[in-house]
TrEMBL record:
Polar residues bias (residue ranges): 207-221
Residue segments, region Disordered: 181-237, 603-638
Gene: LOC108683026
Protein's recorded name: DNA-binding protein RFX2
Matching Gene3D superfamilies: Winged helix-like DNA-binding domain superfamily/Winged helix DNA-binding domain (1.10.10.10)
Length: 638
């Protein structure tokens, strides 16, 4: 026992048959701290008379009780326990401000209901009205979100809505039919509140050619139509002017995490799985909003905020090197309810980020999101785009991999590798498409110049096409009939006034005529790749002949050849994606992953074979030497 009369401080420690008692008292400050351990039960009491705050934590038979006493003398008790004895941790920000009447109001007016959702803003508006009616101080929206999740365990958040009417919803809750709120709308009028049944189509993901525009039901990004996002109030005049050059942005729709017969990792519950799924959906929607508003610099912050694991993440040689628990408790902003580490405990979170179904879900979601971003930023590779917008997109593309690499420090390496490959494909595709667009604008001026077109036609008629045919036939095995028809069609199109769009139609028709006979074949990507090689060789032979003849239009032909090569690659890329039932960015990511596997000796940064990783994602056992269909059809390095 230690006692100081002048400072009014008393410290008592007692040990009796294994029980420990610790009491600290300060009369002037009116602070009392008592800790007691009795037969395995733990009691912690903090008392402040002036502030009228009482906090009691009690652990009895594995259950945890948290009791907060307000100045009115009433208390709120939260019993936190999980299914099958799993303990769930649920903190409530500003708990001393939550009135017991508010908790009771939630229980009286709402009830759990599977397959039903309510707008998050609607619930908060009703709560504000309740506080005003009872002269209570309301908590902010973030704290209210934590409060309602503590009352209704397992509540999830989803983003739902149609064009111009997208809102965050609480999924798994509804207004009780007996509640007075059942007949009120958001404005207090008499109409049933908005309760949305969960759409089955939102759980599916469809094959796509990569379009994110409205009205394309084959899209991988939902069937709700294009979503017109409101611009921020601080948008600059230049940003507003550039909006007209952007494509439509659909509401993203992802599949659920399909766990199947696989056992959950130790310590992981379905609540953790659903929380991860909902948070990742919201995260992707936030990224989509930022890019659509041309807030490119915000993407780095969004990534860092979402993936921040806390602690010193510079040491990435060992996933378990940092003390995840200490970092989680000390460095995460508890008011940020959309950060993974604030919503899922460290152990289950790390296990989830290594699980095969979660990796598959993340990969699918990233491909859908990134393809949509491409279609928003470069909706038409031939349409004229302002130079400042093109440069901004290119700078954005160059920064993506570095930003995401930094944000993912501290995450499992399997997840890092998967996400870096996908975002690298996004960066490459944006750079290719903006370069193609730049070539298109330069070539447009040539195609609209009648004198240059006449000179090109004269020089083309001097080319020794017989010699070109012979060399192309020997090297590529080109069909002579197809080559002759290609020559004739090119000259006819050059003779008549043709816009860049007319040439694009001709190139599209050429690709379809050549590749359509192979569409149903398993080696369609191989035929597509061979077509690109033959096209490139044949066109290079024509340019070679023009060079040797010192053709006056050589510069114009060289520019047109660069444009047509790039555009042909663009068209073939989309044809292959369509046949495989995937997005173009997913197809190119397969190719990029294979190249990285070759450069790294067949190992990803995690030391795991990329081939085995891909087989695991597709549900194939690597030890059985099985080869999934998609692996057979993927691009191979050339």
């Amino acid at each position: 026992t230690t006692q100081s009369d002048e400072g009014n401080v008393f410290l008592t420690t007692q040990s009796d048959e294994g029980n420990v008692f610790l009491t600290t008292q300060s009369d002037e400050g009116n602070v009392f701290l008592t800790t007691q351990s009795d037969e395995g039960n733990v009691f912690l009491t903090t008392h402040s008379d002036e502030g009228n705050v009482f906090l009691t934590t009690h652990s009895d038979e594995g259950n945890v009780f948290l009791t907060t006493h307000s100045d009115e003398g009433s208390s709120i008790e939260f019993v936190v326990t999980g299914a099958d004895g799993d303990v769930q941790t649920n903190s409530i920000a500003q708990a001393n401000r939550v009135s017991p009447a508010s908790v009771q109001w939630l229980k009286d007016n709402y009830e759990p209901a599977e397959g039903v959702s309510l707008p998050r803003s609607t619930l908060y508006n009703y709560y504000i009205r309740h506080c005003a009616d009872h002269k209570l101080d309301p908590v902010n929206a973030a704290s209210f979100g934590k409060l309602i999740r503590s009352v209704f365990m397992g509540l999830r958040t989803r983003r739902l809505g149609t064009r111009g009417n997208s809102k965050y919803h609480y999924y798994g809750i509804r207004v009780k039919p007996t509640s007075p709120l059942f007949s009120l709308n958001d404005d207090g009028g008499q109409s049933p509140p908005h309760q949305s049944p969960d759409s089955p189509s939102a759980k599916k993901i469809h094959s796509s050619q990569g379009s994110c525009s409205a009205g394309k039901t084959s899209s991988a990004y939902g069937e709700s139509g294009a979503y017109e996002r409101p611009m921020p109030a601080d948008a600059s005049p230049q940003t507003l002017a550039n909006q007209q050059y952007l494509g439509d942005s659909d509401m993203l729709a992802f599949p659920d995490i399909e766990w199947g017969a696989n056992p959950l990792p130790p310590g992981v519950t379905m609540t953790h799985v659903n929380t991860f799924s909902d948070l990742y959906r919201e995260h992707c929607s936030t990224l989509q909003d930022a890019v659509h508003a041309l807030k490119f610099s915000a993407v780095e912050s969004i990534w860092k905020k979402f993936w921040h694991m806390g602690g010193n993440n510079n040491n990435n040689n060992n996933d378990d090197a940092m003390d995840v628990k200490d970092a989680f408790l000390s460095q995460i902003d508890e008011d940020d309810e959309n950060n993974l580490a604030t919503r899922i405990p460290p152990g289950p979170l790390q296990a989830l980020m290594r699980a095969r179904p979660v990796l598959e879900f993340v990969e699918t979601a990233d491909y859908a999101l990134y393809q949509c971003l491409v279609d928003v930023l470069v909706p038409d590779v031939l349409r004229s785009i302002p130079t400042n917008l093109t440069q901004s997109v290119r700078n954005f593309a160059k920064s993506l991999e570095g930003w995401l690499s930094q944000a993912l420090l501290g995450c499992p390496r399997q997840l890092q590798h998967l996400k870096i490959v996908a975002v690298s494909s996004l960066g490459q595709m944006l750079r290719r498409y903006t370069s193609l667009n730049h070539l298109a604008q330069a070539a447009r001026a040539v195609l609209h110049n009648g004198e240059q077109i006449q000179q090109m036609l004269q020089d083309l008629n001097r080319v020794d096409f017989h010699n070109v045919h012979e060399q192309a036939s020997w090297v590529c095995g080109c069909d002579e009939a197809i080559v002759s028809r290609l020559e004739a069609d090119f000259k006819v199109t050059l003779q008549r006034p043709s816009s860049l769009e007319d040439w694009a139609k001709w190139l599209n028709k050429l690709v379809d005529d050549v590749l359509e006979p192979h569409r149903a074949q398993a080696d369609f990507p191989l035929h597509a790749r061979q077509f690109l090689l033959k096209w490139s060789f044949y066109s290079s032979m024509v340019i070679r002949d023009l060079t040797l003849r010192s053709a006056a239009s050589f510069g114009s032909f060289h520019l047109i050849r660069l444009l047509y090569d790039e555009y042909m690659f663009y068209v073939v890329e989309r044809r292959v994606a369509n046949v495989l039932g995937r997005t173009p960015i997913a197809v190119m990511s397969e190719f990029l992953s294979a190249r990285r596997e070759n450069f790294s000796g067949g190992l990803s940064p995690s030391g795991i074979s990329n081939g085995d990783r891909r087989q695991a994602i597709n549900g194939v056992d690597p030890e059985k030497n099985e080869e999934p269909q998609l692996k057979k059809l993927k691009y191979e390095p050339t």
